[in-house]
Amino acid sequence: MNNFKYVFFDLDGTLIDTIPLILESFHYTFMHHFGETRPEEETISYIGMPLIKHLKSIYPGKEEELAKTYRAYNEERHDNGVAIFLGVYELIKVLYEKGIVLGVVTSKRRELAMRGLKLFNLCDYFQFVNGSEASQKHKPDGEPLIKAMEAVNAINKADVLYVGDSPLDILCAKNAGVSSAAVAWTYSPRSDLEKVEPDIFLESPLDLLKYI
């Protein structure tokens, strides 16, 4: 498995370490509205799902109100609360210089995704950034990746690799018919990732170069 011409990345937990801020934001939101929080492992399992869909699944009818609180808290603290994973910038730069077409496929809103990428000088390397607005269906459905392939006219699915940190990412790749790579620098339990059988397991960002 090699010679990928297109490499698409998830954002949170894959390129940028936003997970502590995400967990903190959910904790604040639940405490603010209900006076109690929810298990951290449950919240981690939902990462990769659009915010409204996540909240609707656990508090139907209250998702808009909760999302407003979450976003206000998260966005106020975003720039000081996130970090780039070690080796990610170097990887993206090398892939770009090799002529690989790069893109971001994330379940968060594009506006906030761009803010994170700009923070770490990554924007210029990506041909496109697709947020939750780019597709009607979301991970684990394959539509987000299908829309991404259409954006760069990627005809041959064998040329495409999707890199992510959650089982939802891997299932999205499978449902789109493209190869998948799971990252080991994630908060998702490795056993959960192994259950969905990614094609590649990356121990560090630069490990990806073995497959290009």
From TrEMBL:
Documented EC number(s): 3.6.1.1
Record GO biological process: DNA repair
Alphabetical UniProt keywords: Hydrolase
Pfam families for this protein: HAD_2
Record InterPro entries: HAD-like_hydrolase_sf, HAD-like_sf, HAD-SF_hydro_IA, HAD_2, HAD_sf, PGP-like_dom2
Top-level enzyme category: hydrolase
One GO cellular component term: cytosol
Listed GO MF terms: inorganic diphosphate phosphatase activity; phosphoglycolate phosphatase activity
Ranges in a coiled coil: none
Protein name as catalogued: Pyrophosphatase PpaX
Organism from which the protein derives: Ruminiclostridium hungatei (Clostridium hungatei)
Gene: ppaX_1
